[in-house]
């Protein structure tokens, strides 16, 4: 049992009777008068098999509410794509017209500011959601073999979303957006050797100008979303390949003979379990349910609550629009969005000679530690109590980030 | 050397690779060129007169913010952008400071209570000569490339170019 990959020599599980037909799955009109058309379509596409594979995937039974965070993240990202496309109907990516187009949305279009509000509150929600999703994954040690790349692709998605947020914040070309553009596009200039060149490429010259806006716009609506969609595809593929890990509660043994109990679980595992390449003990959850409808119902409840929150916040709070961009101001105090406060506070701490070190080395080490977590944490334990060697440093890291943010709030808003 | 030793399979594999490489190269040259063009675009020097009239009345030792509409030297047509010129007379010297902080390029202002230039973002401080006296900024406050123009009445006007004396 010891080191061999679990699940070899296991016969494929039979399809349980209650899922044998698709009456509940295929909408009634298709099952009824359109049955023949459906059969024709299925014959050409294999859609039924795909739906079956997609929907009747086994997921761990216990802790299902905690496993809704990933799908909620996906739903909010879809909300961002959706509202982003609608903003494109009216937004003009030009230094002379961008502000006016958003002012038009605000004052003359009944729904314009609402859509902008959803896009903004969607972004805020997404930040928090990704944080909680990552925290959940971290605490449950779901990144351990063979799910290292699930974690790494997730961290890369987080970085991409941060990049989406910062490029998006530069587009309205109001004061907040202009000064965000100035500060953010200036940061690459602290790179050794190529710094000034990178800044000139992004800005389209030495100063922030028309090309800064169009280039950032291109990043925000095409380059980053394309990368994002690709990585999401990979992230989901890996999730489906290895199955949802769940958490330690799914792998407890209750009998006197754990070896036998685990072997029994592996024998009765449903796809995608037993997880290939996993320790046998953690290759099959003790109890599973079908993704559809059990898990999907919970996923939908959480997504609904979040979308209601975004929808209502967009309606009552909307999205701010400062005065138009003014490079000649003497009184404007540029402030970062709240999720960039920790990084902004770091800038205060690094003196003259260490700015580049602070921006690239310190932040780079933080980012590398996040990416490399599955390789740093060699502890085979899954229960958080028995993993103090990673949990204590990680919570110190998280605490530092929160403390930096609080210092930033204190400095900028004089609380 | 001996072409005869290239098998049909090798020919197909290498041929496919070579053709894909050619397609990539054809698309990359203009695309990367467009991306990099700001690096070699010639920045045309344009001079403008600082607004607000002659600078004769600006008091010694008090940096005074004036506006200049500075056009970009290259890129798509765009209106000139209003920029701050801190006209500063101090110990017989005339300075034409740009109010861009050398740290993260926020908007520096003259703070009378400190008698220093102060940046609101991360607390950078500069003396009246632009010298660094506090906070993280790595370089002094930069000046616009400038010159003084005297009109027929003997009044002095400040003119600036659309670039800074030192890159920040």
The N- and C-terminal alpha carbons of chain B lie at a distance of 56 Å
- The level of helicity of chain B is 10-25%
Task: Determine the mean pLDDT of chain B.
Answer: 94
Instruction: Predict the CATH topology of the largest domain in chain A.
Output: Cytochrome Bc1 Complex, Chain C
In which range does the helix fraction of chain A lie?
Answer: 55-70%
- Residue runs with pLDDT of under 50 for 5 or more positions of chain B: none
Show the largest interface. Answer: A-B, 36 and 37 residues
Low-confidence stretches of chain A: 1-8, 10-17
Beta-strand percentage range of chain B: 25-35%
Radius of gyration of chain B: 26 Å
Helical run tally of chain B: 1
Number of domains of chain A: 2
Relative strand content of chain A: under 5%
> Secondary-structure element order of chain B, as H and E?
HEEEEEEEEEE
> What do we call the CATH homologous superfamily of the largest domain in chain A?
Cytochrome Bc1 Complex, Chain C
The secondary-structure class of chain A comes to mainly alpha
* Shape summary of chain A: globular
DSSP E strands of chain B, number: 10
Order of helices and strands of chain A: HHHEHHHHHHHHEHHHH
Structural class of chain B: alpha+beta
The termini of chain A sit apart by 60 Å
What does this structure look like?
The complex is a heterodimer of chains A (415) and B (168). Chain A has 415 residues and is mainly alpha-helical. Chain A has 2 domains: 1-56, no CATH class; 61-331, Cytochrome Bc1 Complex, Chain C (Up-down Bundle), CATH 1.20.810.10. Chain A is built from 15 helices and 2 strands. Chain A has a two-stranded antiparallel ribbon. In chain A, helix 5 crosses helix 6 and helix 13 crosses helix 14 (355-376). Chain B is of the alpha+beta class and 168 residues long. Chain B is built from 1 helix and 10 strands. The radius of gyration of chain B is 26 Å and the shape is elongated. The termini of chain B are far apart. The A-B interface holds A 95-96, 179, 182-183, 186-187, 196-197, 200-201, 203-207, 209-211, 326-334, 344, 347-348, 350-353, 355 and B 35-36, 38-39, 41, 43, 65, 67, 72-76, 78-79, 81-84, 99, 103-107, 109, 120-123, 132, 136-138, 163-164, 167.
